[in-house]
Design goal:
Blueprint lengths: L9 H13 L8 H31 L10 H7 L2 H41 L2 H22 L6 H25 L16 H23 L8 H22 L10 H26 L1 H9 L3 H15 L4 H67 L2
Helix pairs in contact: 1-5, 2-4, 2-12, 3-4, 4-12, 5-6, 5-9, 5-12, 6-8, 6-9, 6-12, 7-8, 7-9, 10-11
């Protein structure tokens, strides 16, 4: 089974890669960031309008100080010293309460503005765009240069796509959680050869061994359930291995080079496993095993080859990558950004409403005390 990976979506994928290039920079060319900024500004204006409306509502509640027969300026000259002191105290408290509400409202608006700043400071969406730019270019190159059939090319593409799913999922986790990176610079700025070797063994050798072990059950049986189970185990294994590998990552290394390095790791892992699959699928391996009288092993390998060739279709793999590309690089950032803005705005509105109710309650109590003070004075001086 040979064919093109993106037989009916090559042009569309090329357009997506062009759009991704525009999203790699934190400036006006980044249309995703500009759209999210527009959403943020619209919500900010809505919050300001709500605050202005609440300010007018509060101002109405404190009009008792200048309300006809209870005008503060008039009674300030009529009351005796003790009652005048109480009146001025109520008036001062009313003014401070109103002033504090306005300040609190502006603080909450500024708190909402910080969501835009925090979004720009987050690196994960940029890393996801950059990773998919590299992977998309690689897959389009493979699709253009190779006949992608069951064999090394298909294995390479399949493993690369699955690793990309895991890597981008981990980046989204990092986006939502504040990961405690190591802030200190390492004591040794240049790693020794042994450290580099063990680092490569951990980041490349272990995943290769894990993938080979996951493919081993196909030597004995095959089913859709087995494929789904192995896929889930692979994703879980890859996710936790990546998370563990990044646990002690220095903050200064968490940059674009980090994305490029791990993309190269993924390509190398996929390439090595794909070559091994191609070797096992070759006719020479089966002939060699038969000539060596290893008939049982030859039978197992033959059964494994049949089961591997029954894996999911090529078109499904290409379509899955394109759909996942669109979801992760474009739709998810917009929806998540909008959801974060809306959630923060709702929290701000809830706090504004709570402060408004508290302020109105205090205004009602002050109005009652104020009028009672004047009414008592009038009653005693008839």
């Amino acid at each position: 089974m040979e064919g093109e990976l993106f037989s009916h979506s090559q042009t569309f994928l090329g357009v997506l890669l062009t759009l991704v290039v525009l999203c790699l920079f934190n400036n006006e060319s980044n249309f995703l960031l500009e759209l999210l900024t527009t959403f943020n500004n619209d919500m900010e204006n809505y919050l300001k309008n709500c605050l202005d409306s609440l300010k007018k509502d509060i101002s109405e509640k404190f009009k008792f100080l200048n309300n006809g027969a209870y005008d503060k300026g008039y009674w300030e000259t009529k009351l005796d010293d003790a009652k005048r002191s109480k009146l001025l105290k109520i008036a001062s408290k009313a003014q401070n309460t109103s002033y504090n509400f306005f300040n609190k409202g502006n603080e909450l608006i500024d708190q909402y503005k910080d969501t835009k700043k925090k979004r720009v400071e987050k690196k994960e969406i940029l890393f996801i765009e950059l990773h998919f730019f590299f992977v998309g270019l690689l897959l389009m190159t493979i699709d253009a240069c190779c006949k992608v059939g069951i064999g090394w090319a298909f294995s390479l593409v399949l493993l690369l796509v699955l690793q990309s799913v895991t890597f981008t999922t981990l980046l989204w986790v990092y986006y939502f959680k504040n990961i405690p990176f190591v802030e200190e610079y390492p004591s040794q700025l240049i790693s020794s050869n042994s450290c580099l070797f063990f680092g490569l063994l951990k980041n490349i050798g272990l995943p290769i061994v894990g993938i080979i072990l996951l493919l081993f059950p196909f030597c004995f049986f095959n089913s859709v359930l087995l494929e789904c189970l192995i896929l889930v185990i692979f994703l879980i294994f890859a996710f936790f291995h990546s998370k563990r590998a990044l646990k002690d990552l220095n903050h200064y290394k968490y940059n674009s080079r980090f994305v490029l390095k791990h993309t190269i790791y993924m390509l190398f892992i996929a390439f090595v496993v794909a070559i091994l699959v191609k070797i096992v699928l070759s006719v020479k391996v089966s002939s060699y095993l038969s000539n060596c009288n290893w008939d049982d092993i030859a039978t197992i390998v033959g059964y494994w080859k049949i089961n591997i060739k029954d894996l999911s279709s090529l078109n499904m793999l290409g379509d899955f990558f394109v759909v996942y590309f669109v979801l992760v690089c474009f739709i998810a950032p917009l929806l998540i950004g909008y959801w974060q803005d809306r959630k923060t705005a709702r929290d701000v509105l809830a706090q504004l409403q709570m402060e408004n109710e508290k302020c109105k309650k205090e205004a009602k109590e002050m109005a009652s005390d104020y009028k009672e003070l004047i009414d008592n004075f009038v009653q005693t001086h008839k």
